[in-house]
Amino acid sequence: MATVYDVAKYILDKYGSMSAMKLQKLIFYSQAMSLVWDDIPLFEDDFEAWRKGPVCRELYNAHKGKFMLDDSTFLEPYLVSPSALTDDQKETIDAVVRSLIDVTPYQLSCMTHGEAPWKDARGGIPDTKNSDAIISKESMMEYYAEHW
Fold first, then answer.
1. Counts for the chain of helices (H) and strands (E), in that order
2. pTM given for the model
3. Rounded alpha-carbon distances, angstroms, from residue 113 to 41, 49, 67, 108, 143
4. Residue 135: beta bridge partners?
5. Contacts of 64 (CB under 8 A, 6+ apart)
6. What are the two backbone dihedrals, phi and then psi, of residue 43, each rounded to the nearest 5 degrees?
7. Residue 79: which region, alpha, beta or left (left: phi > 0; alpha: psi -120 to 50)?
8. How far is CA 33 from CA 3, 49, 59, 139, 140, in A?
9. Are 42 and 97 in contact (CB under 8 A)?
10. Taken in order 52, 56, 58, 60, is the CA torsion positive or negative?
11. pLDDT, tens digit (0-9, with 9 covering 90-100), for 4-49
12. 3-state SS assignment for residue 73
């Protein structure tokens, strides 16, 4: 199975530099749509409902301290292999990224704040400090199957 790092490298190498926040949200939506369209997750790691939207902690730890991600070199220590992604998974990622590439990081964050998976994980309290509330893959699949 691919890793969150494989997905991040694939997106950065194909679509170019972007903010860490934008990358996190694009990967979140890619994971959601893989669950809906392909019936499998892209990777095993979970997203947490942080104040500025969904964040995969493992990816955050890789880019921590970086606002802009100019390329994928920060992923080198993680044994990244985008070839672990199947053609169907790449199609899913591409469909999501193409549809959201012109949306700003702030707009993506606002989008997630209005959606049930993030809101439910935070207990309906947007400003709670519960930054480690897991957004379940089940809630993602259920919500986005109906709303995307």
1. 7, 5
2. 0.94
3. 22, 9, 21, 9, 13
4. 47
5. none
6. -155, 165
7. left
8. 16, 18, 19, 12, 9
9. no
10. negative
11. 999 999 999 999 999 999 999 999 999 999 999 999 999 999 999 9
12. helix
Amino acid identity of residue 68, one-letter, is M
Within a 10 A sphere around the Cβ of 41, how many other Cβ atoms?
A: 18
C-alpha Rg value of the chain to the nearest Å = 14
Q: d(Cα 49, Cα 7) in Å, to the nearest integer?
A: 20
The count of domains in the chain is 1
Range of the domain at 9: 4-147
Average pLDDT, the chain: 94
Burial of 113 (0-12, 13-18, 19+ CB in 10 A): middle
d(CA 98, CA 100): 6
Helix (H, G, I), strand (E, B) or coil at 55: strand
**Cβ 32 vs Cβ 110: under 8 Å:** no
In the chain, what is the greatest distance between 2 CA atoms, to the nearest angstrom?
40
Contact 108, 52 (CB under 8 A): no
The CA-CA-CA angle for residues 91, 92, 96, to 5°, reads: 115
